[in-house]
Amino acid sequence: MEPSRRAALAASVAIVVLAMFPALVAPMASAASKPQCAVTRPYDNATVSGKLRITGTADMATDPIIRVQLRIDGGSLLIANGTTSWYFDMDTRLLSNGPHTVEAKSFDGTQYSDPAGVTFTVRNTASPAPESEPPYYLVVFVVIIVAGVAVAGWRMMATGGGKT
Questions:
Q1: What sign does the CA torsion over 83, 84, 85, 86 have?
Q2: Which of 50, 106, 118, 138 fits a disulfide with 44 by CB distance 3.0 to 4.6 angstroms?
Q3: Domain range for 67
């Protein structure tokens, strides 16, 4: 093969490789540009009770974070408030006492982050039973009965015991 043809072939191959270069490296670049997500509260293995604010952070790779989703114990997806700094308020009294997990992931409109999660333990104590008091309507009812019997007795005494 003559040198000018060899140079033309090499130039053609170089142009094809350069044209395909973005497509060849795109999968590597997109994998590196996934958003990130972290749960900052509760701490892993924390014991919680009552009202709980779950908090976290989400970092964008190339596109801004548009949503953070979480789930408790693998349940339904819940939407957190905020994006790069997010929170979700919950009442742990709706959960059973014992271990639970929260898992969160951020979304940038194109990709989800890898899930981030923590395990926590719920320990709620039962509230003490109220002291036993008779219901208000029962007290009123008894007062009315006693007053009625007293009035009836007073009238009977006033009329001479019912003799005519």
A1: positive
A2: 118
A3: 32-122
